[in-house]
Amino acid sequence: MSLTILTTISLAPLIGQTSNPSVTIKKATTISVDDVFKLFANEHQLVFSYSPDVVMVYETFSPTRKKTDLTSFLEWLSVTQEISYTTASYPRILIYREQDDETIFQNNRIRRYGYVQDKLSKEKLIGAIIYDENDKILGITDRGGFYSLSLEKDKAIFFSYVGYETKIIIPNGENDRLDIFLKTKNELETVVVTTSSPKEIIIAEGDQGIMDIEQIQNTVGFLGEINAMQLIRKQSGIQSGAEGQTGLYIRGGSPDQNLLLYNGIPIYEMSHVAGVSSILQADDLQSIELYKNGIPASYGGRLSSVLNIQSKNGNKTHYEANAGLSLSAIHAHIDGPLVKDKVSYNINARQSTVGLYLEPLANLSLDYDDLGVSYYDFSTHVHVDLTANDQISIFGYTGGDRISFDTAIASQNGDDQFLFTDRNNITWNTNLVGVSYERILSDKILAQLDLGSSSYAISSRGSYTSDLINSSQIKRSELEIISSTEIEDQNISLMFDYFFQGFDKVSIGYQYQSHGYRPALLQSSLIRDDEIRQILGEQDPISTKDQAIFVEYKGRSFAKLNWNIGLRKSWFSGDNVSYRNWEPRISLKSDVTTKVTLRASYNGTAQYVHMLTNPGSGFPADLWVPSTDKIPAQTASHYSFNIELKEALLDKITLGYFYKDYEGLIEYTGENDIFYSILNENDPIIFFENKTDWQSRIELGSGTARGFELSIDHAWQRWNFNWNMTLSSSRRIFENLNNGEEFPYRYDRPVDHFMSLGYNINNDWSVRADFSYGSGAAYSLALEQFLTPEGDTILVSDGRNRQRLPAFHHLDVYVSYSKLRPKGTLSLQLGVYNVYNRLNPFYVYQYNDPVREQIRLRQVSLFPLLPSINVNWKFKPQKYRVDLND
Amino acid sequence: MSIGNLNHRNIGSILTINIFFKFCLHAVKTLFLNVNLHVKYTVVILSLALISACSKDIDVELTDFESRLVVNSMFTPDSIFTINVSKTGNLADPSDNVEFIDYAKVLLYSDSSGESRILTSIGDGNYIASTLYPEVNVLYSVEVEVAGFKTVTAHGKIPNPVVISSVDTAMIFESRGEALQVDFDIESTNESDDTEYYIWDIFDANTVKGNNPNPFAQDAWIENAWLNTTFSDTDFISDSDQLQSKIYYQNDKGGDVIQGSVLSFEQDIFNSSADSSDQDSVRLMLRLLTVSPELYEYSKSIELYNINRNIGSNQSTPLEIYSNVENGLGIFGGYNQTLKEL
Predict the structure, then answer these.
(1) Is B19 helix (H, G, I), strand (E, B) or coil?
(2) Would you tell me how many other CB atoms lie within 10 Å of the CB of residue A332?
(3) B162-310+317-341, which class in CATH?
């Protein structure tokens, strides 16, 4: 193999200029070609790309006029050195040598394949873009950092990855492997803390939605924590959050409809304690893939979206450590080689600290008693390059959280006193282990095998006591409601990628999952001290299996049309029941011009698990249940269309429309919602008598979601601005609910905004302001009263989910500082969440005050104005430290 | 042994808690000492500026609240037609209460005779047709007009009665102690295979509540009743149909079941007062109602509502009360009653 690596001269960010600029060179002066290149680069920010084998840079040039224009110079060069050039990618000038006709007609395509990696750490770079001199994208590295392309000989191609210097090669010779090593720009430059404006954050959305890790790592979230979920929620079509909202609500879907993957292993929860943080530790992230439409056929099992997290393999050449302290958590990270260039590890740990100060402060100044907030994460990853063609990863994760709080209401009327207290507790934890093996079978075939085992448990417990006290008696009533779900999964996934000509790739695969579900819902009129596990006792799991095969064809044709077309066949088996579904997928993208991109997609999806949610206004209680003979799969048809405009007044404007159709949705029946009653029994009353009794307490229905999305990104001088807005409607219709009439989905959000304005003060300091706004969640409220034939007064609602919580909105301000020091990098973020101290509703509930003889509505909020501070120090081993005086 | 580049210097580069915390304190101290004093105090105050309450009572406005008419009539062949009309009230507006309406125009229509008549107001929202006794299997319609409200309509009829063809009782021993087991058979008189709707309960006729003339009243229930109710010796009545005061059952009749078929039920009542040694103080009655489907759904939803009356839950959704009154609320349905002493 021979290859040519081009030299690129570039001294400054490129800005559009006139296409025939000139430089001043004294007449009769002799100047080298290399110096002429530098003059044009300095004065006009041009980039000359050429091979040293092609251009003799030391040849001298004698200008005939005082001013030498670019065209004249290039013409001179082409004549004297018999080269060709193209300015198609102005201000980048590509200089090359044409092949003679005989050579052209020979086999002029060769294949290059391999991994794109970080030069220092040897981490695989997922989502690196490969393009030609006309900026035509030839390929994108896959989730393993692998590429395989059929390329024209002697045509330059560029390997680019955000935060890294672009590498250019001119392939010639025979088919051969070529691993590309990119150097990070940050090796020599001060780290400039960017804002959270997600400019260019999604590369080729709909093709492959890779998020910018650098931007994620600079996204300061709630209480100063780096939180990737914050950045994800800022995309249009994704609800920008709500008080205590933990799941992702994407285009009218519910949180259970998102496929969450950790290194290819499905998990059920990604957020911590009411959205304060997420399991995504910034130092652990290698890539985040997000699809809210155009979901490839290789993903399945959920209806709305895919969020695939890949953790880092670890640095194979040197150790790096990072530690940080914020008002929400303390975290530590270390990665490095076990065997240099062959075996690496990556360890991350985080423990919340928010409870240390929030709990005592809340107990002193808030209505809460015993507020408890805590979470933790621990992840490990070992990666081994077995051979040049084989690699294996072994990884594990454990994490969980707990939020609890007690509230009390008291009222008095003369001698009568009423005291109502409730104690609330939610916990969850996830444990998983997995193995991922990848092998390059040939220059065109890549095989991947993923194995995993995971367990997930979530429980919520509400204990309620009401005391009516007067001079003669104390009347006490108690109630406890417990909901709990435990899920154990085993996963196998096998996939083959076949790369054939040009951009095209075909993938086929098989996926298998076995599940064991233990949902339980209990209530008791006696509050017990036992732990939930003791109360529930041993439960037999509900066992089910999901399987799927898929084929996916990703390609490009004439007319700049990219596509990803696939078909997935999934089937489910449970107790005496099986379901099968065909899931067609199509995603199209067309660069109509360099400034206009059109995208359209259709997803047919199926899901064999449901999450039953508390439909009322109260404390969340989620229950995961599988499909059964009475509850078929959820299915959805999702249509999406958007248009992207670049450099039309603003840097980027995206307009989109989506429509979704759902079948197989479930809701608790009206009379069997999670309710609260004082009964005369003292033993726990099991809401679900046996593991399938819950089926008799739910209704089947359907739904629709539709909406418009607008996204604007713009940068001007030191300013940058981002605005994402979604106007949408999400409705449900159930024959036996709401008199069979359509009603809003609980998380219907007609208006959702996110705006971010940032300013880079200098290379070290930046400020940013974020504003989030969302319509309040829909809920049912019984405020209409009427008389029964018996003369009793009954309260009814005027329809399901006809009321709205107050809108959710807050303004956050952050100041960031980052400085490269000789021994590492110091980062500091100061922020204020909810600057104007709005009490956003977490939930509301209705209660009857018997002393005042009044029905009252009470709103519970979680987060008032909260300052934050995050200090982070990233160590660099001595060998890799930079002398800033050089 | 060394693994790669592992040596004491690299280990020294790895974070230690002591060094890290010292550094953080130094960084924060440097930052704050270099900041204007006023700003420093502002930052300190902000750090402690948590508000005094994160929960509060809020006002709820039903901006588009529109009061609706409520029409209630549960008619039986034994009584003249009586229809009660009232209006709904807004809980959020103390000035907008429930009220009986005595100035409505109430029109009753009989499907079999084609006759319609305007009912007479007798006060407290009641309207009667003094000489009209509803008939079995005749579809009746009512239309109520009141100025300022949407006109409401409803339809209903009295289903065919069923016969309690046999009743047996025996004392048995349950895990909780002695219980009264009641076996009874129901015989349908309906020639068609339409679904029939039964509501039954067992009450003590020697109590005040037990003598309530309203068979749908829900306060006559016997404590701890409705254990292990079975149908045809094998199938349990589900929990969702065994409520606090009554049991609800839909006889779908299976297509092949015809007039004269018998359904057998067995029910255990655990009640200390049903003890064989104390029977003289108790006069148990089995009451079986055959009801129209609307009345079945309504009665069940009302009983569930009363069981689960919301008194402070933060886990609840308002239960939906069934109504067959178009543009309004309430119930217009017929029933037959059969009583048997046990």
Answers:
(1) helix
(2) 20
(3) mainly beta
Residue with tokens 């016969």: B163
A:818-837 residues touching chain B, CB 8 A cutoff: 826, 828, 832, 837
Contacts of A789 in chain B (CB under 8 A): 72-74, 84, 214, 216, 331
Specify the residue for token string 């359907």: A702
Nearest CA in chain B to A670: B319
In whole angstroms, what is the distance from residue A191 CA to residue A820 CA? 7
Give the model's pLDDT for residue B35. Answer: 37
Per the structure block, which two tokens stand in for B138?
């005749």
CA distance A560 to A572: 39
Highest mean pLDDT among A166-180, A438-452, A465-479, B177-191: A438-452
* Angle subtended by helix axes A33-44 and A70-81, to nearest 10: 150
Strands (E), A228-353: 258-262, 265-267, 271-272, 277-278, 285-291, 305-311, 320-326, 329-339, 343-352
Task: Pick from A15-19, A763-767, A790-794 the range whose average pLDDT is largest.
Answer: A763-767
Most confident segment among A224-233, A779-788, A806-815, B42-51: A806-815
- Main-chain phi, psi angles of A15, to 5 degrees: -125, 145
Q: How far is the alpha carbon of A128 from chain B, nearest alpha carbon, in Å?
A: 29
More confidently predicted of A504 and A877: A504
Angle at A281 between CA A276 and CA A282, to 5 degrees: 110
Nearest to B56 among A325, A678, A859 (CB): A859
Instruction: Parse chain B into domains and list their residue ranges.
Output: 69-156, 162-310+317-341
| CA pseudo-torsion sign A834, A839, A840, A843 | positive
Longest dimension (CA), chain B: 108
Closest-CA residue in chain B for A358? B50
DSSP state string for A198-225 = -TT-SBTTTT--B--HHHHHT-B-GGG-
Residue A103 contacts B, CB cutoff 8 Å:
no
Task: Write out chain B residues lying below 8 Å of A337, CB-based.
Answer: 4-5
Question: d(Cα A293, Cα B271) in Å, to the nearest integer?
Answer: 61
3-class SS of residue A99: coil
Annotation: CATH topology of B69-156: Immunoglobulin-like (2.60.40)
In chain A, which residues have their Cβ closer than 8 Å to the Cβ of B31?
Answer: 828
Residue B260 has pLDDT above 60, yes or no: no
Which tens digit of pLDDT belongs to each residue from B126-169?
999 878 889 998 999 999 999 999 999 999 999 988 888 788 88
Write the pLDDT tens digit of every residue in A852-873: 666 667 777 777 777 778 787 7
| Average pLDDT score over residue span A357-363 | 66
Which contiguous run of DSSP H or E holds residue A405?
strand A390-413
Task: Look at residue B268 in the predicted model and tell me its pLDDT.
Answer: 61
Domains of chain A (ranges; CATH) run 2-96 (3.55.50), 101-187 (2.60.40.1120), 213-880 (2.40.170.20)
The confidence band for A246, taking pLDDT boundaries of 50, 70 and 90, is: low
Q: Dig out the tokens for A768 from the structure.
A: 């940013």
Q: How far apart are CA A17 and CA A37, in angstroms?
A: 16
Q: What is the ipTM of this complex?
A: 0.73
Q: Is the peptide bond before A91 cis (omega within 30 degrees of 0)?
A: yes
β-sheet bridge partners, residue A277: A272
Three-state secondary structure readout of B228-265: EEEECCCEECCHHHECCCCEEEEECCCCCCCCCCEEEE
